[in-house]
Amino acid sequence: MPDINAAGFPILSLVTFLPLLGVVILGLLRGEEKDISQNARWVALWTTLLTFVLSLVVWTNFDPSVSGFQFKESSDWLPAYGVGYRMGVDGISALFVLLATALTPLCILASWDSIRMRVREYMMAFLILETMMVGMFCATDFLLFYMFFEGVLIPMYIIIGVWGGPRRVYASMKFFLYTFAGSVLMLLALLAMWHRAGTTDIAVLLHTRFPPEMQTWLFLAFLASFAVKVPMWPVHTWLPDAHVEAPTAGSVILAGVLLKMGAYGFLRFSVPMLPQAATMFQPLMFSLGVVAVIYTSLVALAQQDMKKLIAYSSVAHMGVVVIGIFTFNQQGIDGALFQMLSHGIVSAALFLCVGVVYDRIHTREIARYGGLADRMPAYALVFMLFTMASIGLPGTAGFVGEFLVLVGAFRVNFWLALLGSAGMVLGAAYMLYLYRRIIFGRITRDDLKAILDLSPREMAVFAPLVVLTLWMGIYPGSFTGFFDASTGALVQGHEQAMRAVQAVHYAAVIRP
Amino acid sequence: MLFATAVFAPLLGALLAGLPGRVLGDRAAQLIAICFMLLASVCGVAAWVQHIYLGVPNGVVPVADWITAGDFRLQWALQYDTLSTTMVAMVTCVATLIHIYSVGYMAHERFTTSRFFGYLSLFSFSMLMLVTANNLVQLFFGWEGVGLCSYLLIGYWYDRPSACAAAIKAMIVNRVGDLSFALGIAAVFLRFGVVDFSTIFAAVPAHVDDMYHLLGTDFRAYEVIGVLLFIGAMGKSAQIFLHTWLPDAMEGPTPVSALIHAATMVTAGVFLMARMSPLMEYAPGALGMVTFIGATTCLFAATIGCVQNDIKRVIAYSTCSQLGYMFLAAGVGAYQASVFHLITHAFFKALLFLCAGSVIHAMSDEQDMRKMGGIWRRVPVTYAAMWMGSLALGGVFPFAGYFSKDAILNAAFESGSGIGLYGFACGSAAAFLTAFYSGRLLFMTFHGAPRADHHTMEHVHESPLTMTGPLMALSVGAVLAGWWFYPQFIGSLQQAYWQGALFNGANNHVLQRLEDVPAVIALLPSVLGLAGFAIAVWFYIINTALPVRLAERFRPVYLFLLNKWYFDELYDRIFVKPAWFLARLLWHTGDETLIDGVPNGLAELTVDGSRQAVRIQTGSIAIYAFTMLIGLVGLVSIFLFNR
């Protein structure tokens, strides 16, 4: 039986598996094809909304002043092997649970009219995806985590492969092979860690000291898995292809939540469990982060496909996240976390913005657009807001994370801060250039002359994202306060571990 | 309370006028925006009066918490001191006048103007946030906010490609400076552990000898911070190397040029230097750089201003040049003179731009001065106002510019350092050129034979009262502001006026010595100014063929100036083109060929491999049997040998 936790009931399991109930209901739907589609949409919407409301309990009942896991649940699974069903969230993961539950209903709404084929199956895939995502952030058992981590791939693979664009098979295979190849190495790392610690309980693993050489190998194994997910340069090329072929909602989840899995993995495993290796690889991670920022920002500048451009910008933004995580100081890590959350909102919104015009004109080619401000003032305003958030304008969500990472990076090294923030300039260049080509200018094409502004349904999709973007920019305290204690503990733990190592080192030097 | 109202009223105005503007209609949106701006200016002036004359002390108006991350804590709060109240009073008054002016100027628009007024009010709010910030990050918020509004307003006519290009250019060039500014903030935080002004300034003397390791050498931390902040200021205030966006920004509607690109936003860099004076005073190296860049810009921009033909571009380069004066003053430690020039400049430069707008309006949207001339009788109010603005700009006694510019040049001379004298030389030369191009602008625009076509000349008319009213109000400022504020800003009352808002180091006596300069030096700027005007009269009224002959005689020089020292071409070569080249290279060669080459190649290898495997399976039993036999032999031999 699960333990009863702070909320009085196993809230995390409920949030995780509620969407599966929706899947069952969807499976039971009978009737005309058209009715099934319509009912499937409503069932999916209500299920995800209910899940979101339920997940708000995590928000309200979470105690931000302590750093450990909360809402803990655990029951034996394979007790002989130290494997259990363990759930729990801390400041680092709690907000990602909310991010996932908040974005999914918006995805359902965004797919309302654009998906017309196999609607029921599509909704099922999304609900399963939600379970996997939430489960991954809630799992506090490594094996459970691994299962969810891999499980996410399957519905996403199907979403891209079935409802995607013309090159969907290539893109989905690339997506699957890239992300899966890395994960296999993580499985090996998992086995090695289990072998050493005798359990897969993350809370225990966090306090297990692994010998230095082992840390190095474990770190590399994790890196192989997480770097692809982030994605870090040079294993990022699956992302633009996957985004381009994925349906709008697929891109939203991909950019909004799935990209955070890698960085989350760094924060959950690599940094706290392998402090020495993480410190050893710090320069490598910084270099890869800086290269990602500059390289992909430049590549984004040359793109002619809206989705590819935003996909590349995601890689650049995640480069900033990686830099932030490996500064090992609180501004850097807080900044990285905040950047992940804000990127989750903002890039999701930008993909939705692309979806709006794609639904109308059915092309993602930037050159096909121009002058939309005349016909779509509301759209122009929303798009402008998210463009500005993407380039980190103060007062929007994008600024806080980027700035905190800058401060954290400056603590480490001036040049790291300078190069890591090059995105401030390059980001402005590619985003404003994109905006100009789509929104500004004169309408020349006939199909654009009749284009309609945002529908009420689309407004409903954007409204929460607009509110969140401004809220996170103007009053970020409600979010940083949420994870400050957890990141503080993380930083302290890392410092202690490194001090201990140094003490041993000095002792060894002095003794002879 | 008054102070907070002054800051937040424009925000409310922006939201109410801008967002539902299409529903409300133009008139209502304009009315809302102007009412809130009026409220703001009344409150702004009242807050200033309270502080200066009624003795309300310095303070901080807390608004809310902002960012918390470990020991990094930030608040939204408003700084209430002489510097901020002075700026608030100036910004709200000028902004209100320009709002009113815009009603007339934007009357014949294709677009609904509610968007315009929304942006304008939003800009005013951002600018007020900038000047009232009590910490560096909030200042950065305002800083980026004004940048955004500038971008939006330069690109207001979004159907013009040139306007869009100029808007993007402004944002990106500014971002280069902003990056440095953000690094400067991080450096401040690293040194002091806080970013709010009062705590930083209190701690400044304690960290004077801190070093920062960079580029293999140790620099004094304050020098690093000072230089980083100043590079930020260079971007926003269009100093040489980061100035290229300002002339292009003239693509925006003229009221925007007046408000943003003359009176307020571009002075943000100067304001930053003044605000950070307690720290800058301990960074002599950085101040030397400020002086050098300021002085150079001052002369450089003036030389270009002398040959431009677009009326707004002349004034834009003049703005650039005047900002150079302000930095020159800040660089030699005369922050009071710097802010004084900022305030007087706000009046007369806004006036000049609005006059230019009025002329453009009268000439059916013509901006080229070569197609103007002979209209002064038709637009008497504009003409008179333009004269007053030009005299103030040229630094003629007793107009506003005389007092502030004279003080700056005296300060540069009195600073005694080599760089200060360089500043004095550049500033004096620029004073001559300023008077020359001001005269040139006046005479080309209003005098001589009409050069516009008959149709345009028929339509030349004085602007409506909504436009001439603000002109008259600003004229009063351009005439009186210098004389009126001189004693308080830099004269005998300055310490009582500033109440510690600006800081001069213990060895910095520049202000006290302003009056000690030799008579020759004190008179030099005025003499040069009059000479400049005289030459303009000679060139453009008496002997109008001469400029053309000169241009032909010295053609390379003329082209060099006309093409703005070829900065745009240079930057295009060394930054823009390589960036595009790299972008394509990295995309096609880097991503598509090299990085994707590996997995795609692997995939092909797999496919090829399986094809080979398929080929082996021929279906012939004989071959299978033969293979099995070989395998059996092999196995048996291994078994036997290993026994």
Notable characteristics:
heterodimer; A: 512 residues; mainly alpha; two-stranded antiparallel sheet; 23 helices; 2 strands; 75% helix; B: two-stranded antiparallel sheet; 4 strands
Tally of contiguous helical segments of chain B: 28
**Biggest sheet character of chain B:** 2 strands, antiparallel
Distance between the termini of chain A: 55 Å
Secondary structure: number of strands of chain B: 4
Strand content of chain B: under 5%
Shape summary of chain B: globular
Strand element count of chain A? 2
The major pleated sheet of chain A works out as:
2 strands, antiparallel
Structural class of chain A: mainly alpha
Tell me which oligomeric state these chains represent: heterodimer
Q: From the alpha carbons, calculate the radius of gyration of chain B and give it in angstroms.
A: 31 Å
Low-confidence runs of chain B: none
Succession of helices and strands of chain A: HHEEHHHHHHHHHHHHHHHHHHHHH
Strand order, biggest sheet of chain A?
1-2
Approximately how much beta-strand content do the residues of chain A carry? under 5%
N-to-C CA distance of chain B? 100 Å
Secondary structure blueprint with pairings:
The complex is a heterodimer of chains A (512) and B (643).
Chain A: H1 11-28, H2 33-61, E1 70-78, E2 83-89, H3 91-110, H4 119-138, H5 142-151, H6 153-163, H7 168-197, H8 202-205, H9 212-229, H10 238-245, H11 248-273, H12 275-280, H13 282-301, H14 306-325, H15 330-361, H16 372-375, H17 377-390, H18 397-412, H19 414-420, H20 423-438, H21 446-449, H22 456-474, H23 477-510
Helix pairs in contact in A: 1-2, 1-4, 2-3, 2-4, 3-4, 3-11, 3-15, 3-22, 3-23, 4-5, 4-6, 5-7, 6-7, 7-9, 7-10, 9-11, 10-14, 11-14, 11-15, 13-14, 13-20, 14-15, 14-18, 14-20, 15-17, 15-18, 15-22, 15-23, 17-20, 18-19, 18-22
Chain B: H1 2-18, H2 21-24, H3 26-53, E1 59-69, E2 72-80, H4 82-105, H5 114-132, H6 136-154, H7 161-192, H8 197-203, E3 211-214, E4 217-220, H9 221-236, H10 245-248, H11 254-263, H12 268-275, H13 277-280, H14 284-305, H15 311-331, H16 335-362, H17 380-394, H18 400-414, H19 418-446, H20 454-459, H21 465-489, H22 494-498, H23 519-542, H24 546-553, H25 555-562, H26 567-595, H27 597-616, H28 621-641
Antiparallel strand pairs in B: 1-2, 3-4
